[in-house]
Amino acid sequence: MKLSDTDGTTLVTPRTPTPVPPDSPRIFFNRELSWLNFVERVIELIEDRQLPLLERVKFAGIAGMLHDEFFMKRVSGLKRQVEKNSRKTSLDGLRPEEELASCRRKLLKQIDRLGQVVEEDLRPRLAEAGLTIHNHGDLSAAQKEHLREYFGRSVMPILTPLAVDSEHPFPFISNLGLNLAVIFADNGRKERVVRIKVPNNRPRWTPVPNGAGVTPLEQVIAANLDMMYPTSLPKEIYPFRVTRGAEGDLERIPTLPDDALLEHPGRIIELVSNELKARRFAGVVRLQCDRNMPKKYKSWMARQLRITGVDLYPAQTILLGIRDFMDLPFRGHDHLRFPRHVPITHSRLRQIKRKAPHAVFEEIARGDILLHHPYHDFDTSVLRFIESAAIDPAVLAIKLTIYRTSGDSPIVRALAEAARRDKQVAVLVEVTARFDEAPNIAWGRYLENEGVHVSYGVEQLKTHVKLALVVREEGDRIRRYAHIGTGNYHTGTARLYEDLGVLTADPTICSEIAVIFNALTGATPHTEYHKMLVAPASLRSRLNEMIRREAANAMAGRPSGIDAKMNQLQDPDIIRELYAASQAGVPIRLNVRGLCCLRPGLAGVSENIRVFSVVGRYLEHSRIYRFVNNGAPLHFIGSADWMKRNLNSRVETVVPILDDRLKQELDAILEVYYTDNCSAWDCGSDGVYKRRSPGEGEERRATQETFIRREREEPPASFLSSALKTG
Are 237 and 182 in contact (CB under 8 A)? Predict the structure, then answer.
């Protein structure tokens, strides 16, 4: 059956849908393996010699980071299930031990690929470019002497060797830290082991003199240990690295008894802080060791860490901690990077002057503004919106949610400034945002000290919404202005993540956002929303309603279609709804960056569903949902993926796009993704992703390059028309 035309509509022959067995595991992909498939797409970019060299190196660091997080979050969870003898099966019918074994097989293959491309391709090409990652043993005598002086002056004084013997137990090994296992054998006596932690307050990549590249700090330490042990030289030295699980479940804020809420208000901060302390000592889920480490030492170390052989992952490169490739100090060399991209100010915000804070609100009042980051500058749009509100005398109140934010956040500083100017400022800080719990607690306390009203989440629900609301006095009336986004209020990631946002003064939307904030800060649930889709109150039911309406339209021979862009797709009930719609004849296009548990192209089940993924220099992060709706399309953007956790156990908001012009802009954005022929991967019914490539004589169309070029070279009207014509 034909997929949708450019506008997402098609007429189909009505067909009675075949019921999908609700518990059949064959209709789902495994969540964990699908997520690792995303890592494979990143590895393909590392292997792609058509990409600039330093971008490939950066992708290698990203792959290392993704593996680290997978072990901390997903492998840790699977191991806990196995230890508890859990009989719970995954969507595709695997028991925890089967999932864990399948993940290990795929991880080992990926580690082999990473090691091969690093050692056989990246490092030689870096050397050709004069950016060598040297092995210490390959350095000249003069270079070694220079590094020896550096070691003695700046490194050796902070090292703390810890012996392991009958009087010294095996030391605690911190998460993701580099270590050296130093083996001594004095005068034929029994071997003894000393552990030396590679200090993380010294650069991992030590510059070699005369601009000749870098060498790993662990090799500098290993080569100069005779300065610490002049009379007892080490027999062998092996680097190793440990990964610990993200223990505890902070996905949901713990439920407290009523009397505890009264007797210990704000207890959640204490609970989260305790969890963070426990996480430092969580169980080991991976031991990475030098590939040359003898088996006896690997086995001995595994016993000390209380792990088994399946938790051992020997590195296929001499460099452990590949994520540190993101920190290589190779400045400049623009010819080895993607062409520099400087975000532009949205055309409607270019004339706004910083000294006229009221101007941004006057422009929003003229009509909604759709922002597309990082192509539109976050600083001259969202940040300016908040900073203008902070100093505008007409602004009475500001409300905002913080899920993740930058280390020296100008948005947080602006909120503090607003409070100092006697504006009512209310901020919801989500203290259970994984791996950002500690900085969020610190920001919350800072804001409290500045006089801001701070709330720390909703009981049992993680607050994932991306909302800002400004209340302004204009003459004899009060008017609200809002920003609704798909990304965090983080000035750093706004330059690295692809996201969408809308600035609006629509009275109904702003009124409902005010209700959402009252529910968040007042801890009083609200379920009646007419335009906003809010989880867990109404988002799932509204999505089901719209998907079923498309199915009914297809059955009746009316225009139908579903287009969705998201980060992850896992919710089994939503997937079943999509299967039923596909069987009814609805053409469905799903742009899913990461894991996707839906199987496209299954005969009799999902023949009308197409799944693809775009991976590029920026992390695709926006969520767009479009329903053809019998020729009167409905468009939405928001914070929620189609994951069970997003729909059931998080506070999420999805906003309808009401302005026809903005709808056209979203259609044009979607079409750029659909026509990508080089940075998109199509998913087959077997779960294998195949990268698209231009046909003979076909113009290269990479999504992110297209957005950069068109935003910079063409006015919005031209961009819209050309994008739609391309489709």
Answer: yes
Summarize pLDDT for 45-63 with one digit per residue, the tens: 999 999 999 999 999 999 9
Active site residue 464: yes
The pTM score is: 0.89
Q: Which helix (H) or strand (E) holds 314?
A: strand 312-314
Q: Is 499 helix (H, G, I), strand (E, B) or coil?
A: strand
Predicted local distance difference test score (pLDDT) of residue 450: 87
> Domain check: are 415 and 542 in the same one?
no
| pLDDT (tens digit per residue) in 74-83 | 999 999 999 9
Q: How far apart are CA 244 and CA 69, in angstroms?
A: 10
Are the beta carbons of 667 and 371 closer than 8 angstroms?
Answer: no
- Indicate the residue among 490, 522, 554 that finishes a domain: 522
The helix (H) or strand (E) run that includes residue 592 is strand 588-592
Collapsing DSSP states into helix, strand and coil, what is residue 225?
helix
Overall number of domains in the chain: 3
d(CA 349, CA 345): 6
Residue 326 is given by DSSP the state G
What is the CATH classification number for the domain harbouring 319?
3.30.1840.10
Sorting pLDDT into bands at 50, 70 and 90, what band is 279? low
- The one catalytic residue among 464, 483, 621, 635: 464
- Whether residues 510 and 591 fall in one domain: no
Residue where a domain terminates, one of 328, 355, 386? 328
pLDDT mean across residues, the chain: 88
Domain extent for 572: 532-726
Q: Which of 127, 173, 156 is nearest to 217 (CA)?
A: 156
